[in-house]
Specification:
Layout (H helix, E strand, L loop, with lengths): L5 H10 L3 E3 L11 E3 L1 H20 L4 E3 L8 H7 L1 H4 L1 E6 L6 E3 L21 E4 L2 E4 L9 E4 L4 H5 L2 H8 L5 E10 L14 E11 L4 H18 L7 E5 L11 E9 L2 E12 L1 H10 L17 E8 H12 E6 L2 E6 L10 E5 L5 H18 L2 E3 L5 H10 L4 E5 L1 H6 L1 E6 L5 E5 L3 H5 L1
The structure holds adenosine-5'-triphosphate (ATP).
């Protein structure tokens, strides 16, 4: 269990523009959050790391961006229309509804009464909508509850257009929607979420080696996110808890501030999905080996990452405190390539044109090179350092009166708060 409190992270994220409650001026919306300016930057950096690790770095990966809305037959074939359910119970006293598997005794966790909880009912978590002006059974569609099915229904398209050799993968990042009975723990259980998923198609005889490759790949991705290896755990999901078609599933769990929970999953799905779509669509979804061998339905390894949960884990891991000058300091110890702002440029005063001019030159030079550089010229320098610490900016470059005379600046490092005097021409070497 982590020592960081979730409330502290939520408060920093709101205060510094990472995460806002959705539609906040109208009281918010349960299980839905908005990414603010710094949140978007951090989220993109996590996505980019995933993309470079699993799409760019692999020879046999095909990216895809399937639409969120799909023909409802997809969800009938995949089993979601009937089986994507959570057990729902209702308290007869306070009428709260909750997930049966989240309640540990016969006491209602909301009103505290005992023996008031009813029998569990199956609740389908897909958001239903209608396509077009007529709202009848024919026009039903769903907001996708996972990105994976968009991949399976495009398997044939990718094979026909690119003739990939097995094994190969199709990768996709996108929104998914789940009408969670009790969204909670901030970004952990959302109703609108983002997934980064890969369906990796393999020869049935080779699934074990691919599974192992993805197990290791997942762990190395968590390391790149800066997640401490002691806080990441592999749970071999026991047979009775696995989907019936899966011969192996690993849940990667992380010690979140509220306990150990699933961060991502790795599942061997066999040929279940392609088979189901072949049957329901009547289309041939077999793969024909290039050596003329017999066509077959490939098997699938699925590494599935939740972007919001990764974001939450990265924030929880980075959230740090220490004491500086007798005062408590909060700082985000983010890995440099995840930090939303790489360097902040701080002119010591605003009303000295030569100093501002120099500072602008430094800012432009760094911005051209690093992109995400922030100009900070309001308020006092100490407070500005604290703000930059709180958003995880690894370096602050301060331009002062001495800079005008000798072209040197002060560089301050976020984690140590150490400051050193550096020539302007050497700043980049120091901060990259
Ligand atoms: P859980 O058991 O926590 O509900 P799950 O096993 O249903 O999760 P999957 O269907 O395997 O999750 O989804 C893959 C990944 O998507 C999860 O590992 C998680 O990172 C993310 N995810 C799933 N549901 C949510 C949610 N409601 N909010 C945020 N992320 C989610």
């Amino acid at each position: 269990m982590s020592e960081v409190k979730l409330d502290d992270i939520v408060s920093l994220a709101k205060r510094r523009g990472f995460i806002f409650p959705s539609s906040e001026i109208y009281g918010g919306l349960a299980g839905v959050y908005d990414y603010g300016p710094l949140g978007v930057m951090l989220k993109h950096n996590i996505e980019n790391l995933w993309w470079s690790s699993f799409v760019i770095a692999w020879d046999d990966m095909y990216p895809l961006d399937a639409a969120i809305l799909m023909n409802k037959k997809v969800w009938e074939a995949s089993g979601h229309a009937t089986g994507f359910n959570d057990p729902l119970i209702e308290c007869s006293n306070c009428h709260s509804r909750m997930r049966a598997d989240h309640v540990e005794s016969d006491k209602c966790p909301v009103c505290g009464k005992t023996s008031t909880l009813g029998k569990p009912k199956e609740f389908n978590m897909m958001f239903k909508t209608h396509i077009g002006p007529v709202t009848d059974d024919e026009s039903i569609s769903y907001l996708r509850p996972e990105t994976a099915q968009g991949i399976f229904v495009n398997f044939k398209n990718v094979v026909e257009t690119f003739s990939p050799d097995l094994p190969f993968g199709i990768a996709q990042i996108g929104k998914a929607f789940r009408n969670e009975i009790s969204p909670r723990e901030w970004l952990f259980r959302l109703r609108e979420l983002e997934q980064m998923e890969i369906e990796y198609f393999v020869h049935p005889d080779k699934w074990e080696e691919s599974f192992e490759e993805w197990r290791k790949g997942s762990l190395s991705f968590f390391e790149k996110l800066g997640l401490g290896s002691k806080k990441v755990h592999e749970l071999e999901v026991p047979k009775e808890d696995r989907a019936h078609y899966s011969q192996r599933t690993i849940d990667f769990e992380y010690d979140f501030p509220f306990g150990r929970r699933e961060l991502s999953g790795l599942a061997y799905r066999g040929d279940y999905d392609l088979n189901a779509h072949q049957k329901a669509s009547g289309q041939n979804l077999e793969y024909s080996p290039k050596d003329g061998g017999k066509a077959f339905i490939p098997h699938v390894i699925e590494p599935s990452f939740g972007l919001d949960r990764a974001f939450l884990a990265v924030l929880a891991e980075a959230y740090s405190t220490d004491t500086q000058g007798g005062e408590q300091r909060v700082f985000l110890k983010l890995p440099a390539d995840l930090a939303p702002i790489k360097v902040a440029v701080l002119p010591l005063v605003k009303n000295k044109p030569e100093l501002t001019k120099k500072a602008k030159e430094v800012y432009k030079m760094l911005k051209d090179e690093l992109g995400n550089v922030m100009w900070v010229d309001s308020g006092n320098i100490g407070k500005n350092y604290r703000k930059m610490d709180e958003i995880g900016t690894p370096y602050c470059v301060t331009i002062d009166f001495q800079t005008i005379d000798d072209d040197t600046v002060t560089i301050r490092h976020r984690d140590t708060t150490d400051q050193s005097r550096v020539d302007i021409k050497d700043i980049l070497k120091k901060v990259i």
